[in-house]
Each structure stands twice: as structure tokens, then as C-alpha cells.
Amino acid sequence: MSHNKQRSPLALLALVSILAPACVRGPQVSSMPTLGLRRVVVYRNGVAYFERGGHVAGDNVEFRVRQREVGDFLATLAVMERGGSSVQSAAFPLPRDPTQGERAPSPDERRTVQMRLDGRDHDLVVGYMAETPIWRPSYRLVLGARDAQIQAYGVVQNLSGEDWRDVQLSLVTGAPVSFRSELAEPVITERPLVTDRGEVIDAVPQSDTTLANEPSPQPAPVVTAATTPAAIEEQEDLDDGADGDEGRANAERRRAPRSSTRATASGRGAGYGLRGGAMAPRPAQPVADRVANYRNQRIGGTVGGYVGGRPGGTSGPAFEGPSRPRSVASLAAVAVQGGVTRYDLPVRVTVPDRSATMVLLASRDVPGERLYLYAPDAGVGDSTRHPFNVARFVNRTGSMLERGPLAIFEAGAFLGQGLIDPLPVDATAVVPFALERGLAVESASTYDVEGARLVTIRRGVVQIERFRTTRTTYRVRNGMDREARVLVRVPTPEGTSLFEPPPMTETANGAALVPVRVNARGRGEQLVVVRAPFAMSTHWGDPQAIEAIRAYIQGGRAPRATIDALTAALELQEQINRFALERGELITRRNDLQTNAQETRDNLESIRRNPAAADLRARLTARLTQVSADIDQVSRRIVELDTQIGERRVRFSEAVRTIDVDASVPAPRANP
To answer: 476, 505, 537: which is the final residue of a domain?
Structure first.
């Protein structure tokens, strides 16, 4: 007995340590009386919308909420009740009283929120938001001869502390704005102290009222997954050619009771409902219309997983990749609201606590192909010499595809994996999944500053735009026995662009995809020019400025008066430049002549007392005379040029004084 008493404290400690996590891991929100969990909508921003419902006989409902969830619960609590709301109040305790030295509750401590009702009988649906792991997409792409098949799955994790049993599950793309709300935390703001001096307000602040200019828009119809597979298959039998007794027999057979897991939500009238946390009407929808909604998602009908044979055949099955769903009823209904896409699963699902599930969202035939992409990646060393194998497809699923992994199949084989970025409807994805060493790519680049485009002329200052140009030649060698189409990814950072891009060039985010076709065992080459503009201020005498002004005049965009003024000023500037060039050449010639004259004088001085050098002295004297005459002639021309240059500079200054050009502003059209 004494031995057992000594061990009892240890046993008690062990029991507490075992039970403590279970207490902490309780459900985020529970209610008394119990309102069953009916609907879960999981978003991509770390929250989910939960919907509970049931019959309540009493005048209050108590919710037990984790402390860290109280703020979100109160901020998003929405109550719908058949026959009108009977909610009077929702009372909740404050976290702590700092003035009394109370401790703050732990995040997992349970708090009671009491919702008071009027009356005894209530048919309630209660919705609220709570933190939940984001759902994550996963994709399969099956490449065919002419197109491709895309399958989208969603992975959902349940860490809510309770099992999700037979719930209607929806997954929403995008990330609507969501934030934490500490509504249960008391906030007392500081207020200014105002003394009572008997003043009164002598002017009433004016309010603003905006009247509606258009009729209120009717609410958009909500696409839901309420249609059961039985109803869909029944309508398909009636519509798809099963006529006479056979069609009626199939319809009667499909009216047999189904499992409860395939039924719609119970206890929910047509007069209330929530879609992702927002109240919306839920009108009845004819079966034929709902079937049409599902059929719009199916392309090609029901397809099995085997082609050209059956399992167990002597030659073996021809497996072409992941199978399409047997029935379109297994696909999620897709609705677009508020800029996001919502997938509503057609059947109820069960996700136990601390577990995950992967559900099929969409399966579509889309335009797709396999080709090659040259896009050097620092993480893949050989990508500087070899292109990637890539799968390219167009998002024709009718919904946004979130960022996620993509498994690629072709001809019954797994080719590799890639990653797609968020892909809007009708956008094209190019997904690398392996290197192709049968193709080799080389490139060589040159750099230069080219071109001149007029930007502005103000107060005689000319601003032009020039281009830093990169010319890259890509040479592709094909060592395979088939033609190859290679897309060369050319980066186009902000402020750069392709100049005269080759035909069939595609634009991507921050890059351009330039096609190069290479014959089997052949070679291909493509020149790509990327330009980056930059502005610079210069003067009229700059050759680049003259080139830019001439191009602006020839473009014919300016008014006639501006063109005439620019032409006259440009002619004066060109005359000044021509005279200045001639003057510079004459100064050089005069300097040479003066040097020659000085050398001649020095030679004459050296033979001045030599009687035998009379003939040489005569020739040197004649040369000095001619050089002096040439110097005088050149000097006179330089003076003339200085006069002409000075005159034209004055005329030019007067001509450009009133010229004000902004080439970025379109010229007004002339009156006819």
C-alpha cells in the first residue's frame, strides 16, 4: 500500500500530461445545445468559414470559443433563422481586468459566448470565420497529340480540433482581405479635457448625401453544388438518347434512395443561406439547368483509363495517363464572385481532425503542347547550353489556377514535375520539367548606344532620347531526328523592350519568348535586339540633336508653323556648323603655314653669310613670300567666317527663342 501511495503522484502527473493536449486540442468553437457542422469554406489566406445549423428549443445558445478565436468569431458571426431573426444579444466575458491584477487567459483557454434568443423554438444557421491552414492545389497535365487534359485537385488540412463529418466543402481561390479583430479586448481611448465655459456650437456641420443614379443591380445567381448525382444521371438518361421504355426504366432505377453522403444539406430552407460568409439568396434551380452547368465543365464525355484494350488482355492495357472522372457529377461546381473562384464539391465529405484530404476540383481538355524553352537558370548549370523540355497549355478551365505543383504525363509515361504560377482564365503557362540535351544553344552579344528621338526643345536646350542597345544572336543546333521548336526566353526588365521582335514572339512577365525553328539534324539562328531608352540634354550643334530634329520634322506630327521654325533654325545651325568646321580647318592650315614660314626664316638666317648659297637663298626667299601671302589669305577668310558665324548665331538665337516643342504631346488635328 505504501508503495502505491508513493507512485500515485507520478501516475497523476502522467495522467495530466496525457490529458492536457487533448483539452488544448478541443474544437475551435462548440455550442450547447449542439449545432452540427454543416459547411466549411476554406480560403487561401489562413481562414475558413464554418456554418453550423440545427433546431434549438430554448431561449439561449452558448458557444465555447478558444480565446484566440473570440475576436474572429465576434467580428464575423452571422445568424440566419427561418421566419426572421430572434437574436437579442451576444454576451461574452472580457479577457482580464488589469486594475484587479487578473492574469490574461491563455490562447487555448475556453471562453463562453452566450447568444440570447426570444422564444422557444428556433431553426438556426450560424456562420463564423476561424483560422485554418490554407488549402493547396495540385495539378496533373496529360499531353496528347493535339491538346492536353488538365486536372486540378485541392489538398485540405483539418486542424480545427473536431471532425468534419458529412460537411459541404468549398475551396476559394485568391486571398480576400482578412485580419484579426480583438473585439473582446477593452480599449479606452484618451480624450481631451474640455472645461465648461458655456459655449455653444454656432454652426452645424454639413453632411453629404449621394443619391442613387441607377437602379439597384439584381443579385447574381449563385452556382451551387446542391444537385445530387442521382438527379444529374436521371436527366442525362432522359436527354442522351435513352428513349421509350429503356429511358423510363433507367430514370426509375436512378430514383432509388441514395446514401446520405450524397444528399444535400438538410434543415435548410430556400429562404436563407451563406456563401463564403456572405448572405445570399438560394433560388431553386431546375434540374436541367443544373445538369447543363455541370456539362459545361465536361469536354469529351466519360473516358476511362484504358485505350485500345481492356485490363487483363494478352497485350496489356494502353494507359494514357491519369483517368478522367467517370461522371461529371464528381467535379466541383465553379462560381466566380467578387473576383475569386469558388469550388463547391458536389457530395458531402468527411475529414477527421488532424488529417487531410485531396479532392478533385476540375478536369478539362485544354489547348496544350510540348516544346522547348531556352531560359538559363543559375540553379541548373547545364541550362546555359541546353533548353528545357516544357509543357505549354492555356487555362480554359473557367477559373483561376493558383500556384502549385504540376505533374506532366505523355503517352502513358510520367515526364516530370513543374510549378505553375497563378494563372488567370485564358492565360498561357509554359512549365519546364526536364533538360533536353539533344539541343544545344549558343549566344553572342554586342552592346552599343544608338538612335536619337526628340523629346523637348525649351529655351534653346534640346532634350533627346537615345537607346542602349543589346544585340544577341542565338544559334541552335539540333542533334535529334525530328524538327524542334525552341522558345528563347529574352529578359525584358522594366524600361526595356524588344526592337522589331521576330514574328510569333510572345510576351511574358518581364520577358519575351522568341521562337526558333530548327530542322532535324540542322541549325537555326535568330537575332534579338533589346533596347533601353535614356534621356539626355544637349545643344543644337550636337549631331544627335540634329538627327532627332530632322526625324521629328519628317514625322509630320508638328503644326506647320513649328515645322517651318524648326527648319529655319536647323538651316542656320547647319550653316554655323559648316562655317565652324571650315574655320577650324583654316586655323589648322594657318598654323601649318606659320610653322613653315618660321622654318624658312631659320634656314635663311643660317645661310645669310654664305656666298656660295645665293641660289638657295633666292629659292627660300621666294617660298617665304608665297607662304606669307597664303597666311594673309587664310587669315582674311577666317575673319570673314567669324563675321558670318557671329551673324548667324544672332539670327539663330532669335529664331529659337520662341520655339517650344514637346514631342510627347500629340499635335492637334488641322481643321478640314
So the answer is: 537
Q: How does 535-559 read in b/e, with b if 16+ C-beta sit within 10 Å?
A: eeebebebebbbebbeebbeeeebe
- Specify the number of domains making up the chain: 3
Taking the CA atoms of 506, 508, 514 and 517 in sequence, report the sign of the dihedral they define. negative
Cis peptide before 107 (omega within 30 of 0): no
| 339 and 247 inside one domain | yes
Residue 256 lies in a domain: yes
Q: Band of the pLDDT at 571, cuts 50, 70, 90?
A: very high
Place of cell 617660298: 623
Q: In the prediction, which pLDDT does 194 show?
A: 64
Please say if the pLDDT value at position 340 is more than 70: yes
Q: Please tell me whether residues 247 and 322 are part of one structural domain.
A: yes
Q: How far apart are the first and last CA of the chain?
A: 117
The verdict on 507 and 564 lying in the same domain is no
Cβ 33 vs Cβ 62: under 8 Å: no
The 3 state secondary structure assigned to 571-611 is HHHHHHHHHHHHHHHHHHHHHHHHHHHHHHHHHHHHCCCCH
- CA atoms within 13 Å, Cβ hemisphere of 168: 25
Flag the least confident range among 102-106, 408-412, 498-502, 587-591: 102-106
The DSSP call for residue 663 is: T
Stretch among 301-305, 447-451, 504-508, 604-608 having the lowest mean pLDDT: 301-305
Give me 336's grid cell. 466566380
In a domain, 481, yes or no: yes
Last residue within a domain, chosen from 504, 537, 570: 537
> Is 210 strand, coil or helix?
coil
Determine, yes or no, domain membership for 268: yes
